Amino acid sequence: MRSLCAVLLFAGLSSALHISAPMSKAKMEEVFGKVTWDKNVKTDYCSQCVEVEISSTGGASQYQENRLGRYTVAGALWENMVPFFEASNGQLLTPGPYSNPIIYTVMWIVSETLGGFNAGLQNKFHVDGINCPWEFEDGWEYEHQFQWTIDPTLRVKCIRFRDEE
User: Fold this and answer.
1) Cβ pair 58, 151 in contact under 8 A
2) Residue 42: enclosing H or E segment and its boundaries?
3) Alpha carbon 127 to chain centroid, angstroms
4) According to the model, what pLDDT value does residue 115 have?
5) What pLDDT sits at residue 23?
6) Going by C-beta distance under 8 Å and a sequence separation of 6 or more, which residues neighbour residue 96?
7) Ramachandran region of residue 52, left (φ > 0), alpha (ψ -120 to 50) or beta?
8) Contacts of 32 (CB under 8 A, 6+ apart)
């Protein structure tokens, strides 16, 4: 009985938190609208950087290690307004689900889905305007046990610029 309750509880939490397998590109476009899947896309904002590195020596390195590493441009959102980046393990550095370029509000997150409802890293402190994720050194948080905690060591750094190619 306990194991059945545990399974049902996990299933309910998974459903409520949108925990699922990564979405296909077709499904992402169905959910988020037209997406540009060109790695060479030039965007209106943040186009100068083609590769970033996400690093931490704090809590994110312990609880969200799979979301750290190198990310390269994978495409663009909102009619090529901003890029999104993908790591070799399928994680995405992307504007979050509550971002809205019409009112110049972009919150960067790291998730396994575009627009990421399952984010493990986020920066909700620098959302006014359309900023690039490497432009701020503070405010990055990681998720652990359904709680968001600031990691002062978490950095998103541009490591390869378009003009270096």
Assistant:
1) yes
2) none
3) 14
4) 84
5) 62
6) 107, 108, 109, 111, 115, 116, 119, 122
7) beta
8) 77, 114, 115
Extract the tokens encoding 73. 């441009």
Per the structure, the count of domains in the chain is 1
- All residues at 6 or more sequence positions from 7 whose CB lies less than 8 Å from its CB, including other chains: none
Contact 154, 56 (CB under 8 A): yes
Per-residue pLDDT of the chain (165 residues; tens, 9 = 90+): 433 333 333 333 333 334 445 566 677 676 666 789 999 999 999 999 999 999 999 999 999 999 999 999 999 998 899 999 999 999 999 999 889 888 999 999 999 999 888 899 999 999 989 999 999 989 999 999 999 999 999 999 999 998 865
Q: Is residue 60 part of a domain?
A: yes
For residue 74, CA distances in Å to 39, 90, 148, 157, 163 come to 5, 10, 27, 17, 17
Query: Do residues 124 and 107 touch, judged by C-beta distance below 8 A?
Result: yes
Place of tokens 């925990």: 19
CB 124 within 8 A of CB 141: yes
The pLDDT assigned to 165 comes to: 58
Which residue range forms the structural domain that includes residue 109? 23-164
Amino acid at 77: L
The answer to the question of residue 12 being in a domain is no
